[in-house]
Amino acid sequence: MNKKPYRPGPKRPSNATRPKGRNRKMVGKNDQDTNAINDEIRASEVRLVGDNVEQGIYPIDKALKIAEEQELDLILIAPQAEPPVCRVMDYQKFKFQQRKHAKEQKAKSTKLVVKEIRFGPQTDEHDYNFKLKHAIGFLKEGAKVKSYVFFKGRSILFKEQGEVLLLRFANDLEEYGKLDQMPVLEGKRMTIMLSPKKPGKKKEGKDAAPEADGAAQQDNAPAEE
Predict the structure, then answer these.
(1) Are residues 118 and 158 located together in one domain of the fold?
(2) Which CATH number covers residue 152?
(3) What phi and psi values does residue 74 have, to the nearest 5 degrees?
(4) Helix or strand run (H / E) with residue 154
(5) Are residues 130 and 184 in the same domain?
(6) Strand 144-150 versus strand 177-186 pairing type
(7) Residue 175 burial (CB count, 10 A)
(8) Model pTM score
């Protein structure tokens, strides 16, 4: 089978430049972008917002012309509005701001961490204090603490003793965490859950003044003979 000779097509001139304004709708876009821009916008009129533009409702042709004159893009930011809202700005800058905002929101949202602490129904004092110290550290770090007593075999007979142990544990952690639920028996486990407390603020200013004044008056009061 004879192969046809390869004939290369015309080359793009080396001095060719990318189109500006409304005609550069696909520059820097990929399949993951969700905002329609420039000629992709199908509305007959839009509400225009952005810097260096007179905000208001414009026919789509007029809005595109305003963006083109500033060598910027017309970006659809609220397609469900009536009329749809568009912003005049550089598309790459718009996507950068979106990514930055998403990153900040992700940093603010903290993942819920739950630490488990296991007891036996007849835990000795040394083991109890050791686990109490760990629980304090977990709560200070902002993690939840799930503490449970595991009843093995006939030790289920000591479930009242396990409940007392968990309530004591919650009481000893009162300064650092709040009890989300009372002890609950599920199968062979009796469980409590504690959430970390936010550090409280000390009273300052006027609220603290009366105590200070009272203390000063008491110190300066004449001694009774």
Answers:
(1) yes
(2) 3.30.110.10
(3) -100, 115
(4) none
(5) yes
(6) unpaired
(7) 8
(8) 0.42
Which of 150, 146, 142 has the alpha carbon at shortest distance from 110? 142
Higher pLDDT, 136 or 181: 136
- Separation CA 72–CA 54 (nearest Å): 15
pLDDT at 3: 54
Looking at the 3D structure of the chain, how many domains does it have?
Answer: 2
| Cβ atoms 121, 149 nearer than 8 A | yes
Q: Are 162 and 190 in contact (CB under 8 A)?
A: yes
Per the structure, the complete domain to which residue 27 belongs is given by 21-99
For the record, the structure tokens of 87 come out as 């912003």
Provide the pLDDT for residue 187: 83
Tokens 């488990």: give the residue: 116
Q: In which element (H, E) is residue 190 found?
A: strand 189-196
Residue 133 has pLDDT above 90, yes or no: yes
Total residues found in the chain within this entry: 225
Q: What is the mean pLDDT of residues 3-24?
A: 48
